[in-house]
Amino acid sequence: MKSIYKFAFLGLLALGTMSSCSDDQLETSPTTSVDTGQLMRSTSKAIGALNGIYRFFYTTGYTTGWQHEEFGITAFNHVADLEGEDMIQQAAGSGWFWYDYRFDVKGDYTHNYGRPYGTWNFFYTIIANANYLIAADATMEGDEKEKNYIVGQAYALRALGYFYLSQFYARNYIDHPTDPCVPIYTEPTVKGTKGKPRATTADVYKQIDSDIKAAIDKLKAAKTTRDSKSHLGLGEVYGLAARIALVEEKWQDAETYADNAIAEAGKEGIAIAAVSNFLGLNKVDYKNVMWGMKIVSDQSTQYASFFNHMDADMGKYGARARIQVSKTLYALMGEKDERREWWNPNDKNNKTNGYQQEKFKFSNQATFEGDYILMRIEEMYLTKAEAQCMQGNDSGAIKTLMEVMKQRDSGYTCSKSGKELAVTTNPLIKTGSLREEIIDQRRIELWGEFGRIFDLRRLHQGVYRSSDQGHPSSALVKGIDNKDSYKWVLTIPQSEFDGNSALDPAKDQNPMD
């Protein structure tokens, strides 16, 4: 089956027989021609395969072109942010991400580069490699706790892969559970593996839930400390579970998982931090970072990197296709809100658009260094607050929200109630509910980190854009204000139809509009 077995095996052989990675970097070197059976034989070698998957999270080259907008998982989060209303790309530049911003990438499905193929290939590569680690659980030699540590993360990574695929290739889970989503593979795939049809969205989430449960069980039985913040520990898997529970609208689960994530993170000294303590958002060793990719200079992808697209001070792409915050979102902050430092309304390059971003900066411009932050503890508090609100616990939700806000805005207060949301994000039809307030603070706090369109999908809201917010006229796309729009759903790459006889392009391709 061409669409699956061609995915690179990411087993990255650790130097010597190292069984863990350092906090400074993942000590690995890539290979695509490794004996998988040999690599999975022992925990001391399988850790290299696990590190290989994480290395892939900040690697270019998973398609045949367009690598400047394909630099690992942050590229997909960036796409999801640009598809919302809060992030503005001021100009087309060389075209990188411009067509995502304008919802104009679906036609790229015919070739092996661009968004439809790149997204499919990236996450199925993670899934395929996680499947090898999971399959080795029964035969892998070594310390049992070490094995649980490795296999537990593999289950979590497989869940993450299907979670992202479900949000890019199908409509939202709650409104459309029986819609076709993506094929499910849970065994190692080799040449000749028979392709599978698209599973329903409900079935994909059933698999995600099963994998998350397995990951939690394994990591509970694993060694107590993780090797690096680049690895998923028990707390971070609870964090992923909380994200998934929000999409599934399992509010009690979301609250419990967020609570557990906060508790586990606290054991590592991770806690909410003042804005001044994590400026640039570029180091995993900040005390509020739960999960992120530590990237040293010789592993930097330089021009093809998240920070090169964001940091205008570098004078490169971030200065030619400036990323800005909408005027509407900026206006939601109080005068004393320290997060105002993340954007500059007085930048001379703002023109008639939004306000220049200052939130994401290279930690070292000379060496193109900057770590990719994938989960912060503040997200868990905001998740818990929303879940409490949705269960009718307004006082508890406000108390949880204030845990974040007391370190953001000394003048902030909240006495709202209720959980109503408008059908679109039009600022003229806001409901004034507590849930809306929590979501607004989430929008500000996680701008550029999480992917706004992911939240909009689960919130059943259409995207509202206007020139008053700062969006260029070419970004005022029709139809995105419909929560059920297929504009948000990627096309399946032609290569999948060519290699998978279980799929029929006439029946299984997603609508173009």
**Any idea of the CATH topology of the largest domain?**
Serine Threonine Protein Phosphatase 5, Tetratricopeptide repeat
Strand content: under 5%
Low-confidence stretches: 1-6, 11-34
The structural class is mainly alpha
Quickly count the helices. Answer: 19
Q: Give the strand order of the largest sheet, numbering strands 1, 2, ... along the chain.
A: 3-5-7-6
Mean pLDDT: 90
**N-C termini distance:** 29 Å
CATH architecture label name of the largest domain: Alpha Horseshoe
CATH domain class of the largest domain: Mainly Alpha
Task: Write down how many β-strands occur, each being a DSSP E stretch of 2 or more residues.
Answer: 8
Number of domains: 2
**Largest sheet report:** 4 strands, antiparallel
> Portion of residues in helices?
25-40%
Spatial extent as radius of gyration: 22 Å
Net shape: globular
Give me the strand/helix succession: HEEHHHEHHHHHHEHHEHEEEHHHHHH
Signal peptide: 1-22
Family: Belongs to the SusD family.
InterPro entries: SusD-like_N (IPR033985), SusD_RagB_dom (IPR012944), TPR-like_helical_dom_sf (IPR011990)
Domain SusD-like N-terminal: 107-246
